[in-house]
């Protein structure tokens, strides 16, 4: 399951090229401390996946992982974004053309097989301090191909919501491609209602439901029937999520800042943390 796939060849610049070795190390040290602080607030019950064959872990130094546990194995769908993902894992500053995005508050959460030790599913988020409180932005999300459609992705997102609640996060944003809008919205029906609630108004620059409905994969057709009745696209943020955006998300020039992917290329789907 992917969030954002790009058909364009990346011409990104590694943060190593524009920073001194000392600055690179400082950023790594800072992101480790940030992740450790999140981890300290989480107990075993919060990490419970409800699945006997996997366990959940918050990864402090994913760049040190090797072999079957390597987190990049579950992000194989995003091979064209490998450079950016590697920078994100290390808490670096990503630069591409006029884009400059800070991954200094990135969080990596994984499901790992108890039997094989292999990574099964992983999510990479970035924390933002906004006018509406802390917001977690889901940027990269994936499950090993052989493990897809078996409930691992939903289990990981369910645990992520509980971790967010423990860390006083007020909202989780998913920036979804057309093909996975319904999959993410379908998570509203999972056993997560105690931690989060789906905002049924999704945000797209065109304010239209046509493209995501047209791109809907056949396996997700039946999930359409379980979506909230009010579920539809709007051009600008509804009142309940405006404070999560720069300048309240208002105006004709709204693009979805401060988040990585704008509403012209992805659909913004919000979850309120209870």
Describe the protein in words.
This protein has helices at 15-18, 21-40, 82-89, 152-166, 181-186, 210-214, and strands at residues 54-58, 93-96, 99-102, 106-113, 119-130, 133-143, 169-176, 196-198, 201-203, 232-234, 267-273. The protein is an alpha+beta fold. It has two domains: 15-167, Aminopeptidase (3-Layer(aba) Sandwich); 176-274, no CATH class. Strands 1-4-5-6-7-11-8 form a seven-stranded mixed beta sheet, with helices on both faces. The chain has a two-stranded antiparallel ribbon with strand order 2-3. It has a two-stranded parallel sheet with strand order 9-10. Strand 6 (133-143), helix 4 (152-166) and strand 7 form a beta-alpha-beta unit. The two termini are 26 Å apart. The relative contact order is 0.15. Mean pLDDT is 86; it is low at 4-16.
Brief rundown of the structure:
The protein is α+β, with helices and mostly antiparallel strands. It has helices at about 15-20, 20-40, 80-90, 150-165, 180-185, 210-215, and strands spanning about 55-60, 95, 100, 105-115, 120-130, 135-145, 170-175, 195-200, 200-205, 230-235, 265-274.
Question: Largest sheet at a glance?
Answer: 7 strands, mixed
CATH architecture of the largest domain: 3-Layer(aba) Sandwich
Average pLDDT over all residues? 86
Note the overall shape: globular
Kindly, what is the distance between the CA atoms of the first and last residues, rounded to a whole number of angstroms? Answer: 26 Å
Query: CATH class of the largest domain, please?
Result: Alpha Beta
The largest beta-sheet arranges its strands as 1-4-5-6-7-11-8
Portion of residues in beta strands equals 15-25%
Class by SSE composition: alpha+beta
Poorly predicted ranges (pLDDT <50, ≥5 residues)? 4-16
Total count of domains: 2
Helix-strand pattern, N to C? HHEHEEEEEHEHEEHEE
Provide the gyration radius in Å: 18 Å
SS summary, helix count = 6
Instruction: Name the helicity range.
Output: 10-25%
CATH topology of the largest domain: Aminopeptidase
Task: Count the beta strands.
Answer: 11
């Amino acid at each position: 399951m992917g969030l954002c796939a790009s058909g364009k060849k990346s011409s990104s610049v590694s943060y190593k090229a524009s920073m001194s070795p000392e600055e690179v190390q400082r950023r790594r040290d800072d992101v480790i401390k940030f992740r450790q602080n999140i981890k300290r607030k989480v107990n075993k019950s919060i990490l419970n996946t409800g699945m006997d064959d996997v366990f959940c872990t918050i990864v402090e130094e994913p760049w040190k992982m090797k072999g079957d546990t390597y987190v990049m194995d579950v992000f194989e769908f995003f091979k064209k974004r490998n450079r950016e993902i590697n920078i994100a894992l290390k808490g670096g500053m990503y630069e591409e053309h006029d884009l400059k995005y800070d991954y200094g508050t990135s969080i990596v959460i994984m499901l790992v097989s108890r039997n094989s030790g292999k990574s099964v599913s992983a999510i990479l988020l970035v924390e933002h301090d906004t006018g509406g409180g802390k917001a977690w932005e889901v940027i990269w999300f994936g499950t090993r191909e052989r493990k897809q459609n078996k409930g691992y992705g939903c289990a990981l997102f369910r645990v992520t919501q509980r971790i967010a609640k423990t860390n006083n996060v007020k909202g989780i944003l998913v920036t979804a491609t057309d093909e996975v809008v319904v999959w993410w919205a379908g998570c509203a029906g999972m056993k997560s209602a105690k931690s989060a609630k789906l905002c049924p108004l999704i945000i797209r620059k065109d304010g239209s439901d046509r493209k995501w409905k047209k791109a809907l994969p056949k396996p997700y057709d039946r999930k359409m029937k379980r979506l909230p009745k009010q579920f539809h696209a709007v051009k600008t943020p509804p009142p309940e999520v405006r404070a999560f955006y720069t300048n309240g998300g208002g105006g004709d020039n709204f693009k979805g800042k401060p988040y990585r992917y704008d509403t012209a290329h992805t659909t913004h789907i919000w979850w309120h943390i209870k």
